[in-house]
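Worked example 4.2. Below are the chains of a multi-component assembly; read each line carefully before continuing.
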Amino acid sequence: MFATATAGVLVSMSLAMVRAVLGPTVYDRVLAVNTFGTKTVLLIAVLGFLTERPEFLDLAIVYALINFIGTIAVLKFFEYGDLGRTRRVEEEAD
Amino acid sequence: MGLVLDVLSWVSIVGGMFFMIVGTVGILRMPDIYTRLHAAGMTDTLGAGLLLLAMCFQAGFGLIMVRLIIVYALLLFTSPIGTHALARAALSGGVVPYRAKVEGDTT
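Applying the procedure described above to all two chains together yields the following structure tokens:
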């Protein structure tokens, strides 16, 4: 049962990786990596049930948090070119 | 009772895999970033939700079900925030929406 789910998640992860390689703009790549991370969370959870070690769910929770923070950090970096700057500080500097 | 739970798990897994693969094909085939975001949202809510529901059926009541609900709640809260931030960054980064490019109306 969970072997089928693992195969489905892996197929859709490989499709998302195709978009990450093809993507014309950087935002397409960020979207593909974000989707890939969400599917990695599911893969960790399904693998935990496949090997009958549901403690893997704790790793899935941590990975979901890291994925979200990483996406936001990469987007902020591409929008401002700096992780420590905010828009208000930038306007005041101008 | 075990057979009923197994059938429910199979239905949820097949449905979750369907939505997940359809959403990813949408990410591959949609014309620009905004429509791709729309396709990716379906993957995060229905695909992940049905797969986690199948795991809930197999786990039964207990701490493991609480952890599954926590994972789904995290995905449910962080996915729209990430999608919103991505669309806003793409708009301020100068990506023109698909129809606007076709009609020459960039507003």
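Take a moment to check your reading of the output against the notes. The interface with chain B takes residues 1-2, 4-5, 8-9, 11-12, 15-16, 18-19, 25-28, 30-32, 34-35, 38-39, 41-42, 45-46, 49, 54, 57-58, 60-61, 64-65, 67-68, 71-72, 75, 78-79 of chain A (CB under 8 Å). Chain A has one domain: 2-93.
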